[in-house]
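Same chain as my last thread, 301 residues:
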Amino acid sequence: MGKLDGQTVIVTGASRGIGTEIAKALAAEGGNVVCVARTLHPGAHDMANYMKDQGRPGEAGTPFPGSLDETVSQIREAGGEATALAADISTFAECERLVKEARNLYGPIDVLVNNAALAVFLPVQEMPLESWEQSFRIIVHAPFMLSQLVLEDMVPRKHGAIVNISSSGVVGPGCGPYLTKAGTPGTSGYGAAKAALERFTQGFAQEVADDGIAVTAVAPSLIVPTSGAVFHGGARYLGDENGEPPEVMGQAVLLLATEPAAKVNGRVTYSQQILQEFGWITNGTGMGVDPKRPGSGFSRI
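reply #2:
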């Protein structure tokens, strides 16, 4: 018996990195997983569009590895059930379409994981307005739209889990004076979007507290060395041993999606923190575990 046997699961941003591992973890526990992203086939990552989103149109770049087809193949080879669904979740029409298709495929939605993100690390003075707006469309607006849509299934059945993927980038530099510009430059926009997502998580959780639905947010305790992290300089290379394997986030999301709502609803937490708290791992480290890195204010409420 799996923790999610027969349940319908949507995972956005499931073509690579953390999203792939989340989809695999939920499928391994019996979930019927709808894997959502823009990159459907191997080698089809639209690097030109990505560079445009980064405010660097015309610059060349190597397409990121990974695709929905590959994620689904890995799940099916392991004996799980999954379907790839290409969608641009920055629009309501696409969000509505993907929820309807997921429902038609597997039935009412039980679990929604809002993992897709657009990280744009540019100083405010240099960031194009479109890049700022697109980042918020993916990180904040899409989780809002998708959550509204899946509530149509969850509220009547008094059952469901919505897990939002946050970031340690929510924790800002604090107040001045600032002696240097140390740290990752241009984190204002990304951090602001993820902070909005955490505040949304807790307010939303309160609204559905009587409906048997758990709304949570979780961020990696350490940088996850994905292709995106390497591109932005947060990791040295894929699989950087100083980081956190993406499988850890997969397990953290599985925990939040399967524990009783009364135990986790409204939690804003970190991967190794929540896994250690519930006894899934021992000796966690990083954000949320290290006393010197307690996490965002939302995680301590």
